[in-house]
Amino acid sequence: MKNLFRISLFCLLITWCMTACSSKSDTTIVYHSYHSLPNGKWAKSDTITMEYPFDSVPETYRVFLELRNTSNYPYRNLNLIVQDNFPDSATFRLDSLSINLADSTGRWLGKGWGSIYQLSVPIKSVYSLHPYNYKIKIINNMIDANLEGINDMGIRMEKVSR
To answer: Whose CB among 1, 132, 143, 156 lies 3.0–4.6 Å from 64's, allowing a Cys bridge?
Structure first.
């Protein structure tokens, strides 16, 4: 009986330590959304648009591009055009990105198992001075008319702690 109590107490302590060490606070995440691509194909003409209203100002936000690809994606990198609006909501700024999805040996850089991998890439910081609707557009800039192997594209925004 004494050993059973010690073992139970030890297991409880280990579980508590693992939970305390591995849990990450999500209090800074203010927006997280994915757009699923039908049949894992991204047509060159399809633009992914996401919108987030900035209500609390002034604040700085870090924007991450999140994507899920399969092992049948034919390239090592993904070229994108990212457009986001200035606070006046009428003017968009344009950035081109090249994201490495695999290293030079063909090993996928994202986390995952089986044939699906997820990668999170910081793309910019946004500072909002007054409330407005932040829009971000993601455009496929690869040569294929229908790019295979990209399942989901998403945006995660985190409030930067001061």
So the answer is: 156
